TrEMBL record:
This is Cyclin. InterPro entries: Cyclin-like_sf, Cyclin_P/U, Cyclin_PHO80-like. One of its GO terms (molecular function) is protein kinase binding. Belongs to the cyclin family. Cyclin U/P subfamily. The lineage of its organism: Eukaryota, Viridiplantae, Streptophyta, Embryophyta, Tracheophyta. The keyword Membrane applies. Keywords: Cell cycle, Cell division, Cyclin, Membrane, Transmembrane, Transmembrane helix. SUPFAM superfamilies: Cyclin-like. It comes from Miscanthus lutarioriparius. GO terms for biological process: cell division. The chain crosses the membrane at residues 68-86.
Length: 215
Protein backbone atom coordinates (compact mmCIF):
# COMPACT_ATOMS: atom_id res chain seq x y z
CA UNK A 1 0.00 0.00 0.00
CA UNK A 2 1.13 3.57 -0.73
CA UNK A 3 0.80 4.71 2.87
CA UNK A 4 2.90 1.78 4.07
CA UNK A 5 5.61 2.70 1.58
CA UNK A 6 5.60 6.31 2.79
CA UNK A 7 5.78 5.21 6.43
CA UNK A 8 8.73 2.95 5.61
CA UNK A 9 10.77 6.10 4.90
CA UNK A 10 9.40 8.03 7.89
CA UNK A 11 10.82 8.05 11.44
CA UNK A 12 9.74 4.96 13.32
CA UNK A 13 7.74 7.03 15.79
CA UNK A 14 5.35 8.03 12.99
CA UNK A 15 4.29 4.46 12.28
CA UNK A 16 4.08 3.61 15.97
CA UNK A 17 1.90 6.62 16.76
CA UNK A 18 -0.28 5.85 13.75
CA UNK A 19 -0.90 2.30 14.94
CA UNK A 20 -1.72 3.43 18.46
CA UNK A 21 -4.18 6.07 17.28
CA UNK A 22 -5.80 3.66 14.83
CA UNK A 23 -6.68 1.32 17.72
CA UNK A 24 -7.99 4.20 19.81
CA UNK A 25 -10.13 5.44 16.91
CA UNK A 26 -11.43 1.93 16.20
CA UNK A 27 -12.51 1.47 19.81
CA UNK A 28 -14.15 4.89 20.04
CA UNK A 29 -15.94 4.39 16.72
CA UNK A 30 -17.27 1.05 17.93
CA UNK A 31 -18.60 2.65 21.09
CA UNK A 32 -20.21 5.46 19.09
CA UNK A 33 -21.76 3.01 16.63
CA UNK A 34 -23.31 1.04 19.48
CA UNK A 35 -24.78 4.19 20.99
CA UNK A 36 -25.94 5.41 17.59
CA UNK A 37 -28.26 2.44 17.37
CA UNK A 38 -30.10 3.93 20.33
CA UNK A 39 -30.02 7.59 19.25
CA UNK A 40 -30.56 9.70 16.17
CA UNK A 41 -26.95 10.13 14.99
CA UNK A 42 -23.32 9.74 16.02
CA UNK A 43 -22.81 13.50 15.85
CA UNK A 44 -25.42 14.02 18.55
CA UNK A 45 -23.38 11.87 20.95
CA UNK A 46 -20.31 14.13 20.94
CA UNK A 47 -19.99 17.68 22.26
CA UNK A 48 -19.67 20.48 19.69
CA UNK A 49 -16.02 21.01 18.80
CA UNK A 50 -13.98 22.66 16.06
CA UNK A 51 -12.03 19.40 15.83
CA UNK A 52 -15.04 17.33 14.84
CA UNK A 53 -15.69 17.07 11.12
CA UNK A 54 -19.26 16.77 9.86
CA UNK A 55 -18.33 13.55 8.03
CA UNK A 56 -15.64 10.92 8.43
CA UNK A 57 -12.66 11.77 6.20
CA UNK A 58 -11.85 9.19 3.54
CA UNK A 59 -8.12 9.13 4.32
CA UNK A 60 -6.94 6.68 6.99
CA UNK A 61 -4.96 7.70 10.05
CA UNK A 62 -1.92 5.87 8.69
CA UNK A 63 -2.10 7.61 5.31
CA UNK A 64 -2.68 10.97 6.97
CA UNK A 65 0.33 10.54 9.23
CA UNK A 66 2.41 9.44 6.24
CA UNK A 67 1.39 12.61 4.44
CA UNK A 68 2.33 14.78 7.43
CA UNK A 69 5.68 13.01 7.78
CA UNK A 70 6.40 13.45 4.08
CA UNK A 71 5.63 17.15 3.82
CA UNK A 72 6.01 18.66 7.31
CA UNK A 73 9.75 18.04 7.46
CA UNK A 74 9.82 18.19 11.25
CA UNK A 75 12.14 16.41 13.68
CA UNK A 76 11.09 12.98 15.07
CA UNK A 77 10.83 14.49 18.56
CA UNK A 78 7.91 16.61 17.37
CA UNK A 79 5.71 13.54 17.03
CA UNK A 80 6.38 12.51 20.62
CA UNK A 81 5.63 16.05 21.79
CA UNK A 82 2.46 16.10 19.67
CA UNK A 83 1.39 12.92 21.47
CA UNK A 84 2.03 14.62 24.82
CA UNK A 85 -0.11 17.57 23.71
CA UNK A 86 -2.96 15.32 22.61
CA UNK A 87 -2.93 13.55 25.94
CA UNK A 88 -2.91 16.87 27.80
CA UNK A 89 -5.85 18.14 25.78
CA UNK A 90 -7.90 15.03 26.52
CA UNK A 91 -6.95 14.84 30.19
CA UNK A 92 -7.94 18.46 30.75
CA UNK A 93 -11.04 18.06 28.65
CA UNK A 94 -12.02 15.12 30.82
CA UNK A 95 -12.30 17.52 33.76
CA UNK A 96 -14.88 19.48 31.81
CA UNK A 97 -18.32 18.22 30.83
CA UNK A 98 -18.43 16.64 27.40
CA UNK A 99 -14.78 15.71 26.86
CA UNK A 100 -13.70 15.28 23.23
CA UNK A 101 -13.04 11.71 22.08
CA UNK A 102 -10.47 10.73 19.48
CA UNK A 103 -12.50 9.07 16.75
CA UNK A 104 -12.84 9.10 12.98
CA UNK A 105 -14.47 12.53 13.08
CA UNK A 106 -11.75 14.27 15.11
CA UNK A 107 -8.44 12.42 14.82
CA UNK A 108 -7.22 14.10 11.61
CA UNK A 109 -7.75 17.66 12.79
CA UNK A 110 -6.31 16.86 16.19
CA UNK A 111 -3.22 15.36 14.58
CA UNK A 112 -2.39 18.20 12.19
CA UNK A 113 -2.94 20.78 14.94
CA UNK A 114 -0.90 18.92 17.55
CA UNK A 115 1.98 18.48 15.10
CA UNK A 116 1.80 22.15 14.13
CA UNK A 117 1.99 23.21 17.79
CA UNK A 118 4.86 20.80 18.45
CA UNK A 119 6.84 21.96 15.43
CA UNK A 120 6.51 25.61 16.41
CA UNK A 121 7.62 24.86 19.95
CA UNK A 122 10.40 22.35 19.18
CA UNK A 123 12.00 23.18 15.84
CA UNK A 124 14.06 26.24 14.98
CA UNK A 125 12.69 26.37 11.44
CA UNK A 126 9.17 25.35 10.40
CA UNK A 127 6.56 25.96 7.74
CA UNK A 128 3.78 28.48 8.32
CA UNK A 129 0.10 27.81 8.95
CA UNK A 130 -0.82 28.16 5.29
CA UNK A 131 1.53 25.32 4.40
CA UNK A 132 0.26 23.08 7.21
CA UNK A 133 -3.30 23.81 6.14
CA UNK A 134 -2.51 22.47 2.66
CA UNK A 135 -0.81 19.41 4.13
CA UNK A 136 -3.80 18.78 6.38
CA UNK A 137 -6.39 19.33 3.67
CA UNK A 138 -8.14 22.22 5.44
CA UNK A 139 -8.43 25.95 4.84
CA UNK A 140 -6.04 28.48 6.36
CA UNK A 141 -8.90 29.97 8.37
CA UNK A 142 -9.65 26.52 9.84
CA UNK A 143 -5.99 25.92 10.61
CA UNK A 144 -5.68 29.23 12.42
CA UNK A 145 -8.85 28.62 14.41
CA UNK A 146 -7.87 25.07 15.33
CA UNK A 147 -4.46 26.23 16.52
CA UNK A 148 -5.96 28.85 18.83
CA UNK A 149 -8.61 26.43 20.11
CA UNK A 150 -5.95 23.80 20.74
CA UNK A 151 -3.70 26.20 22.65
CA UNK A 152 -6.53 27.26 24.92
CA UNK A 153 -7.55 23.63 25.44
CA UNK A 154 -4.06 22.72 26.68
CA UNK A 155 -3.99 25.98 28.65
CA UNK A 156 -0.88 27.09 26.72
CA UNK A 157 1.10 24.41 28.56
CA UNK A 158 3.57 23.51 25.80
CA UNK A 159 6.71 22.83 27.77
CA UNK A 160 7.69 19.16 27.94
CA UNK A 161 10.26 18.14 30.52
CA UNK A 162 12.91 15.50 29.72
CA UNK A 163 11.19 13.19 32.21
CA UNK A 164 7.81 13.60 30.53
CA UNK A 165 9.35 13.16 27.09
CA UNK A 166 11.04 9.96 28.22
CA UNK A 167 7.81 8.64 29.71
CA UNK A 168 5.88 9.08 26.49
CA UNK A 169 8.75 7.54 24.55
CA UNK A 170 8.39 4.52 26.83
CA UNK A 171 4.67 4.31 26.04
CA UNK A 172 5.37 4.45 22.31
CA UNK A 173 8.20 1.95 22.67
CA UNK A 174 5.76 -0.48 24.31
CA UNK A 175 3.51 0.00 21.29
CA UNK A 176 6.47 -0.59 18.98
CA UNK A 177 7.31 -3.87 20.71
CA UNK A 178 3.67 -4.95 20.44
CA UNK A 179 3.73 -4.30 16.70
CA UNK A 180 6.99 -6.22 16.25
CA UNK A 181 5.93 -9.19 18.35
CA UNK A 182 2.27 -9.14 17.29
CA UNK A 183 1.28 -10.06 20.82
CA UNK A 184 -1.64 -8.86 22.94
CA UNK A 185 -2.26 -5.10 23.10
CA UNK A 186 0.27 -3.26 25.23
CA UNK A 187 -1.13 -2.37 28.68
CA UNK A 188 -0.22 1.30 28.17
CA UNK A 189 -2.54 1.46 25.18
CA UNK A 190 -5.59 0.06 26.92
CA UNK A 191 -8.80 2.01 27.28
CA UNK A 192 -11.43 3.47 24.99
CA UNK A 193 -10.02 6.99 24.70
CA UNK A 194 -6.62 8.53 24.12
CA UNK A 195 -6.49 9.92 27.65
CA UNK A 196 -6.34 6.28 28.77
CA UNK A 197 -3.36 5.47 26.54
CA UNK A 198 -0.83 6.81 29.03
CA UNK A 199 -0.44 6.90 32.73
CA UNK A 200 0.44 10.41 33.83
CA UNK A 201 3.24 12.86 33.12
CA UNK A 202 4.47 12.38 36.67
CA UNK A 203 5.19 8.68 36.16
CA UNK A 204 8.52 7.13 35.24
CA UNK A 205 10.54 7.88 32.13
CA UNK A 206 12.76 6.01 29.70
CA UNK A 207 15.57 7.87 27.94
CA UNK A 208 16.76 4.74 26.12
CA UNK A 209 13.54 4.68 24.05
CA UNK A 210 14.19 8.01 22.34
CA UNK A 211 16.91 6.86 19.94
CA UNK A 212 14.91 3.75 18.92
CA UNK A 213 11.82 5.80 18.07
CA UNK A 214 13.82 8.34 16.09
CA UNK A 215 15.58 5.68 14.02
Amino acid sequence: MADEEDLADAPRVVGVLSALLERVVERNDAVADELTAETASAASLAPPSAFRATARPDISVRSYMARIARFAGCSPACYVVAYVYLDRLLRRGRRRRGALAVDSYSVHRLLITAVLAAVKFMDDVCYNNAYFARVGGISLAEMNYLEVDFLFAVEFDLNVSPETFGHYCAVLRAEMLYLELEGPPAPAAAGPKLHSCCLSEDDGSSSSSQQQLAA
